[in-house]
Amino acid sequence: METEEFRLVREALRAFAERYRCASAEVKPADRAAAQQALDALGLAELRASTPPSATAQECALLAEEHGRYPLATSFLGTGLLAPELLRLLEAEDGPVTCDGVPTVALARDLRLPGRGTTDGADLVGWDCQGADGALWVADDGTVRWSGLGTPTPTTDPLRTVRALRSDAPPAVLGRLDAERRQYWQAWALVMVTSELVGGARSFLAQSTDYARERTQYGRPIGSFQAVQHLLADATVAVEACTSAVRYAAWCLDHAPPEAALAAARVAKAEANESAVEAVYTGMQVFGGIAQTWEHTAHLYLRRVLLGATVLARSADLLPVLAAPAQA
Amino acid sequence: MTDDTLDFGDPADLEQLRREFRAWLAANPLPERLPDEPAAVFLHRWHRQLHAGGWVGLDVPVRYGGRGLTALHQVAVSDELGACRAPGVPRIGYLAHALLEFGSEEQRLRLLPRMLSGDDVWCQGFSEPGAGSDLAGMSTYAERHDGHYTVRGQKLWTSYAQYSDYCLLLARTDRSAPAHSSLSAFVLPLDREGVTVRPLRAANGDDEFCELFLDDVRIEEDERIGAEGDGWPLAMTTVNYERNALDTGHLSKYGLLLERLRQVLQDRRDDLPDGLASAVGRCVADYQVLVAHARRRTAERLAGQGAGPESSVDKLLMTRTEQRLYETALKVLPEELFREGGEVFGEYLYSRAASVYGGTSQIQRNIIAKRLLRLPSAG
Lengths: 328, 379
Prior knowledge:
The structure holds two protein chains of two kinds.
Chain A: H1 3-20, H2 29-41, H3 57-68, H4 77-94, E1 103-108, E2 124-127, E3 134-138, E4 143-152, E5 162-165, E6 172-176, H5 179-214, E7 216-217, E8 220-221, H6 226-255, H7 258-287, H8 298-308, H9 315-323
Parallel strand pairs in A: 1-3
Antiparallel strand pairs in A: 1-2, 2-5, 3-4, 4-5, 4-6, 7-8
Helix pairs in contact in A: 1-3, 3-5, 3-6, 4-5, 5-6, 5-7, 5-8, 6-7, 7-8, 7-9
Chain B: H1 13-27, H2 39-52, H3 71-83, H4 93-102, H5 105-117, E1 122-125, E2 141-144, E3 148-156, E4 166-172, E5 183-189, E6 195-199, E7 210-220, E8 224-225, H6 231-243, H7 251-267, H8 276-302, H9 311-332, H10 343-352, H11 361-372
Parallel strand pairs in B: 1-4
Antiparallel strand pairs in B: 2-3, 3-7, 4-5, 5-8, 6-7
């Protein structure tokens, strides 16, 4: 996309987020549906639909950051970025694929990437389900399946809908990805999920920094106290670290072999799992008492990054992989 | 910092440059260090050898003795050197940038080619016993006379001053003006009357750091760099480049140590203390994040952004990476604690200085708070 065109797309998403950002954890179903409809109307799921795609992975990742900036009950990752890309990869391999309704992706019950023995979908849930009718997943052998969505299952993030898969019909097999495309898909999913986490951490840190300039105690802004300044500076370093890591990984999706992109994506997720959470902790500390209340959005950010750090891959999954010798 | 898309890729000619450099390196390998040859003398021989091949100052314009390429080309050379365990390119990039930005055309033409070639060896005279973190509070004073100055004072941490020909010196030229607008920069030839150099021994045994005593040293007016009062902005430009992970060429050294640690883990996989694999994985992530971060900074610089206060973020990230890496290395290689003079322990000791030199981690946090986050000053 041309720079100007991309900026317009991002402006549209930013305007949407400003308009539909959630002020609290209680969002009425009708409001969720209206927000999803407004997001869908931006047509972002089409960004990768043409051949070649009109948006790069790097641009999609920046949009995911944008969607992460405010608490939103809409599904952009699942229905806008992850499932459409999975279908695109599948079609690049097998030709046109038909899929009933709007899909999101299915993950293991603990929200990691589906592991072994996930052919019947019994141990899976649909993730980021707002506006979705079904969920797609890739088994170890590359087979891509689809299942309808069942009843909601609870998580600590009230804005992200997770639902069981329907057990009354066997999953439909849509096709199969080769090993390279499977790596690409995993890297894509890690990058987009990480980008949304990074967007949330950046935004919440910026909000708490603004607050530190305004809030006065002892007759001066708390942001003038060195103890507070150093907290915010350390969180800034953490946020810049995960920003660099994920933006580089996104670039790798466009320009590097899938194996290299997956390696960069794992690094980015491992970094964000720690540093996005650290940044939100810092932001909450700076907001102080107000951030401990139900009506403040701090806990929405906290819930999102805390659960986000477990989505697809946890640090405990990633770090031992990163410690293995490079040639192994 | 930008939120637009960036090109993290290498310019097309970079791979070609890397190939040329590898071929040159194969034909011109690192020389043997002579018995009892001081490290600085050995490194200086290496500097001249690199320069003879055209591998110093790649990002300096041709008319000043460089090759007119980009920072990325210079980084690629550092990278290749680190990958074959050779010492890095001489750390003069930040001094060269100070002269490029603040020197007169005459000074640049006269000083830069000889700095790059190693004909002249340079050191930096910024810190003082009483002016460490509070650099602007320095007391070395250059008193102005007709056409020259007389300088009195003492400098500290002037790396390799005992082997240097010139010092980039900061001194106060106005006792009444505020600290930040009263400093000026000078080119001081170290053989000048009144200059005394005394080496210090560092915790790892090296004699890198020196004290510099200046007793009524005469400096000519045309040896001043920039105008009177330009000293502080010049110092900030210099330390911004110095802090940048890109310009230090340490990255590939970390990569090599990590590869060794990963291999040790693999060999001892049945007998590993709890959490050690994850600790090494964390170091790998730190390192790869730093590589990605350096690429982002390079891309931003190629897109037209100079080194600014963001370099404090870079310095803290580099410090995090280096200190955690060497702490972990001593856990993976505990035998290193039971011998004297080992390389890993020497580098570990040096890593403890990472949060002090080039501005302490606390000073970096102050800079981030004030200049990046625009937080208010303490009243």
